[in-house]
Amino acid sequence: MFVLHRMASSSRPLFGSSLRLPIKPSVSSSSILCNPISKQFYNRKSQSIYLFKKSHYRFSSSPAAVATDPGTAVAAEESNASDDVPKEVEKVVLPTNESSETLLRIRHTCAHVMAMAVQKVFPDAKVTIGPWIEHGFYYDFDIESLTDKDLKKIKKEMDRIIGRNLPLVREEVTRDEAHKRITSINEPYKLEILESIKEEPITIYHIGDEWWDLCAGPHVETTGNINRRAVQLESVAGAYWRGDVNKPMLQRIYGTAWENEEQLKAYLHFKEEAKRRDHRRLGQDLDLFSIQDDAGGGLVFWHPKGAIVRHIIEDLWKKIHTQRGYDLLYTPHVAKAELWSISGHLDFYKENMYDQMNIEEELYQLRPMNCPYHILIYKRKPHSYRDFPIRVAELGTVYRYELSGSLHGLFRVRGFTQDDAHIFCLEDQIKDEIKGVLDLTEQMLLQFGFDKYEVNLSTRPEKAVGDDEIWVKATGALKDALTDKGWAYEVDEGGGAFYGPKIDLKIEDALGRKWQCSTIQVDFNLPQRFDITYIDSNSEKKRPIMIHRAVLGSLERFFGVLIEHYAGDFPLWLSPIQARILPVTDTQLEYCKDVVEKMKGSGIRVELCTGERLPKLIRNAEKMKIPLMAVVGPKEVETGCVTVRSRFGGELGTMEVDDFIGRIKNAVENRTFV
């Protein structure tokens, strides 16, 4: 279930956030069409989400993070909140597909009801697939472009179908019979789906005796089990059939469905909050970044203010890594294609790589990963067992091909910078190294207020490289490290990569949304492919263990998460502009310039704004989410002071410039308000 906490506060969030609502099927379309639903699916865990009527600030006073059981709905911890956070919290509980089989059945049936309604309103429409998804359902149609007016017609017809209380009846037929029926109603996409179904018999669900679809279920018993007032059609988007750009473009209708009207109302409230905090809009409004059409989709331009935030993040990242024994690297953005052949990327990852470049009769490739480069640096000289562990890290920019339709702001791009690192170690060092990575991850993420994680451990799949003994040892080391850390985790049996077990960590933002962030991956494959070795205590050649790890994931995606997490209201230490000096009239300009120079000399990010009346200057600063404003009039010039207004704390009064500077530096150092 989702737990949405309504807060009656008008104060703003230090660690506030929005939830981006991804459109992602809960299970694959093919499994919806032809696979029975396992009981295990309904036993999947719940998550909690915090919903605020207005943005608020939430401090974490704890020096350590908590890895929560994914099955536990986590309420806001008032004991860890600042005084700005209200004590009264109204909870609205929203179920998920995983926590409520009833909701899943409602959403799946709504997809069918919508398809039936579309074909009643538009008889020439051809149907394809219609799964349930995270917050509702969708269905793809081969039809002319639809408008908002069309959606209203479709919803009206859906309400009629729901009101008729038609039964949903499951029927089993032979493959030949299914083929015959589909051919008779001229549904070519359903024929293609039928060909992909391997199981027998073929199952069909009927709505009354008027409409049917290939489907394995589950569904509600009758359409009357759906509350039509808890269903809403949301939008229309283009979608290629089977996700293939060479196939027809379809019309995808998205809808949301809930068990009752209260749940729908809470979801819509939450959705509005997500829209308000969308990093793509805030990125433009706050002049942080852009995607330039003239340069190409998925390529990020960091504007000066966004670049300042990135610089702060990178400096912090480098400081923590060097303190924890990592050597920092810089490596090229391209390499010979042969390198990617050795690594296996050309065999297993080619569809995500850009075309090769012919340079002086040799083929080169933009890098999709940093790993082979770090291995080459390892191979530059022989190593002894005494050298281990060897830790190297790089903020390395990589390039991966993504379909234009899948690009999404900073969350899905074609060029991005990974906070990549690799550890080369001995077998008996795996546990300590993993524990060290967990400690580093916690230290890094706590800087941004992320103190609740969901942790998953993925184990050996059916097909894997490496012998049983090393898999058992490595997996045990990962488990022991998590246990020593005191973090709860779930085991994804068989979910590891073919080359080693891994730990995945999701961070929970201020609204309770979980974002995939950190990954720790043991690798038995690349050391073998590149034939890397060391000399052991018996003077024999052995192969080291290699650990891949990323803490933030990519800087672009993490920045997008931060924008939504803070709703653009960056805390003072991270804000691109920490203070804005505002003269009442132009006669105070020279004094203001001196103040700016003095503050810049103390390392404070400050700017001078003039040319408008003071109320307009204040409004502009509020709009740009500047944490501090220092107003300067004749009295301030005379006394050598500034009158300070905080975006978070209101009027702070008049103070000397040195005092103002000192309070800012103290607040930045301690991650607090001025």
TrEMBL record:
InterPro entries: aa-tRNA-synt_IIb, aa-tRNA-synth_II, aa-tRNA-synth_II/BPL/LPL, Anticodon-bd, Anticodon-bd_dom_sf, Thr-tRNA-ligase_IIa, Thr/Ala-tRNA-synth_IIc_edit, ThrRS_anticodon. SMART domains: tRNA_SAD. GO terms for biological process: threonyl-tRNA aminoacylation. Gene3D superfamilies: 3.30.54.20, Anticodon-binding domain (3.40.50.800), Bira Bifunctional Protein, Domain 2 (3.30.930.10), Threonyl-trna Synthetase, Chain A, domain 2 (3.30.980.10). Keywords: Aminoacyl-tRNA synthetase, ATP-binding, Ligase, Metal-binding, Nucleotide-binding, Protein biosynthesis, Zinc. Its EC number is 6.1.1.3. GO terms for cellular component: chloroplast stroma. GO terms for molecular function: ATP binding; metal ion binding; threonine-tRNA ligase activity. Residues 302-571 form the Aminoacyl-transfer RNA synthetases class-II family profile domain. This is threonine--tRNA ligase.
